């Protein structure tokens, strides 16, 4: 096995690479920017953003999610576990102990999240409609993240798994800006643009619902 210090610094370097690459990808989208319509106001635009991150996130506002609520719940648990695992990794990289009050709940969340990820992977592979629109990146990203979650759980219970967690974390961060995992940033970025675009045009929030409120 590699020395722990080497793996720690390799993961830190890969994380810096990932965040730098994501920042560059965001900046590269600015060349598609268009002038704002003269008849709009910033107030309307930001109301659209509020909708995008508020009411617009509810299942009934999403045509697909509203029809597949079990999958939506699995996705929420899956992503919650990923962010928790990243926080856990941060503690490990800093050499700081995970607070005792968070240790057991985080392990439970890692396990549930990994199971949700595996279930979503199986659903993608077995559902003809999903399989038809899936590409290798969809499967690879899921496998990498599932491995990251599983090893986060194992390393939290037994530090003998720490090296394996660091190796998978290295792969995770290198793959992050290259594959679909980059949506962890672009989800928020695209929701902001979505809210601004439709808010300026007075499409969102829905005028009829605002009047009712």
CATH architecture group name of the largest domain:
Up-down Bundle
In total, the number of strands is 0
Q: Could you tell me the mean pLDDT?
A: 87
CATH class label of the largest domain: Mainly Alpha
**How much helix, percentage-wise, in residues?**
over 70%
Give the termini distance in whole angstroms.
61 Å
Radius of gyration: 20 Å
Estimate nothing, just give the exact number of structural domains.
2
Task: Write structural notes for this entry.
The chain is 76% helix and 0% strand. Helix 4 (69-94) crosses helix 7 (136-157). The termini are far apart. The chain has ten helices and no strands. It has helices at residues 4-28, 42-53, 63-67, 69-94, 100-126, 128-133, 136-157, 162-175, 183-200, 207-212. By secondary structure, it is an all-alpha fold. The chain folds into two domains: 4-35 and 68-178, Fumarate Reductase Cytochrome B subunit (Up-down Bundle); 42-61 and 181-213, no CATH class.
Characteristics:
2 domains, single chain, 10 helices, 213 residues, Fumarate Reductase Cytochrome B subunit, 0% strand, mainly alpha, globular
């Amino acid at each position: 096995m590699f020395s722990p210090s080497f793996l720690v610094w390799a993961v830190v370097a890969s994380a810096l690479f990932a965040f730098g690459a994501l920042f560059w990808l965001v900046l590269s989208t600015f060349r598609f920017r268009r002038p704002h319509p003269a008849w709009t106001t910033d107030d309307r635009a930001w109301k659209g953003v509020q909708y995008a991150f508020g009411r617009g996130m509810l299942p009934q506002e999403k045509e697909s999610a509203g029809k597949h609520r079990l999958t939506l719940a699995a996705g929420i648990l899956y992503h919650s576990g990923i962010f928790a695992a990243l926080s856990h990794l941060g503690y490990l990289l800093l050499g700081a102990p995970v607070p005792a009050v968070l240790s057991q709940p985080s392990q439970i969340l890692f396990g549930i999240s990994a199971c949700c990820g595996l279930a979503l992977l199986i659903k993608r592979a077995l559902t003809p409609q999903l399989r038809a629109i899936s590409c290798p990146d969809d499967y690879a990203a899921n496998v990498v993240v599932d491995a990251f979650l599983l090893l986060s759980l194992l390393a939290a219970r037994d530090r003998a798994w720490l090296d394996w967690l660091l190796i998978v974390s290295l792969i995770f961060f290198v793959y992050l800006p290259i594959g679909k995992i980059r949506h962890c940033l672009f989800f928020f970025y695209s929701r902001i643009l979505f809210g601004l675009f439709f808010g300026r045009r007075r499409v969102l929030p829905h005028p009829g619902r605002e009047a009712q409120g």
